[in-house]
Amino acid sequence: MAILTVENLTKDYGEGKGVFDVSFDVAKGEVFGFLGSNGAGKTTTIRHLLGFSKPQSGKATIKGLDAWTDAKEIKKSIGYLPGEIAFPNDMKGSAYIKYIADLRGLKDMTKADNLIKQFEVDPSGDLNRMSKGMKQKIGIVCAFMHDPEILILDEPTSGLDPLMQANFVQLIQTEKANGWSILMSSHMFEEVEETCDRIGMIKNGQLISIVDPKNIKRGEKKTFKIEFLTFADYQSICNEGFQIKEQKPEFNQVTIDIEDTHINKLLLALSKRQVRFISEVKHTLEEYFMSYYEGGNHNV
């Protein structure tokens, strides 16, 4: 069952900026990743879901409520982490956390205290003197501490070091196991691969693909790196009509892209030659993303 939906959402700011006929949904208990370059339309879409912007056409809904007309009610059940957090300058981190807790009517601060410990947050300092990473940790605490059933996260690990990024991945996996529904925009391919059930890719305001990251790794096309004992064998394999991705004649090495249905043909060709080694090169989400942005076609 979809708990969050975007249907034919359009907001045209002119000069090709905005979002155009964007549609996707997020199921209960699903983590949905949102990938795209800066200016692609990720934050614009998120702002519509939060009721900060009114669509020109189409709509966004959360738990069946219209994101624009029912924004106040929706905000009661979601956690939100913006891409750019605007903190008040005259507050300490601890006071800000308490302020957000009071706004939400949160009395039990156990979850907040656990998050502060997990992310090694020092909330005692002035917000205006904190580093980008520390401010991001404060934002994470405030987004998660009230146990929302729906989370909307815009570049949530921006400014975090690798250890804290790993902690964040663990947090997402834990909350997913608890049945939370999460929409997360990110530039961190490894982070998205480790946490997301599906990934939507947006380019120039248009959703160009929705993929299951597991299907990318086990897709119909395989890539093999092969090294031969002799230059003659290396040279001859290059003339067999295979799709050559990369050649390193100085090492007698070749990298071949091949469909699953043609692997037997490759194995037959290799059986006639002296092979030093063969290894499969795993496809990554980053490769898939970059090829799509370069105009490639995929059916994953």
Question: Could you outline the blueprint of secondary structure elements for this entry?
Answer:
Layout: E1 2-14, E2 17-27, E3 31-35, H1 42-49, E4 57-62, E5 65-66, H2 71-74, E6 78-81, H3 93-103, H4 110-118, H5 132-144, E7 150-154, H6 162-177, E8 181-185, H7 189-195, E9 198-203, E10 206-211, H8 213-217, E11 221-228, H9 231-237, E12 243-248, E13 253-259, H10 263-271, E14 275-280, H11 285-293
Parallel strand pairs: 3-8, 3-9, 6-7, 7-8
Antiparallel strand pairs: 1-2, 1-4, 4-5, 9-10, 11-13, 11-14, 12-13
Helix pairs in contact: 3-5, 4-5
Tell me the major beta sheet.
Answer: 6 strands, mixed
Work out the radius of gyration. 24 Å
Q: Name the CATH architecture of the largest domain.
A: 3-Layer(aba) Sandwich
What is the domain tally? 2
The count of helical stretches stands at 11
Number of strand elements: 14
Proportion of helical residues: 25-40%
- What order do the helices and strands follow? EEEHEEHEHHHEHEHEEHEHEEHEH
Note the beta-strand portion: 25-35%
- How would you state the average pLDDT, rounded? 91
Let me know the CATH homologous superfamily of the largest domain: P-loop containing nucleotide triphosphate hydrolases
- For the largest sheet, list the strands in their spatial order: 6-7-8-3-9-10
Instruction: Outline the low-pLDDT stretches.
Output: 296-300
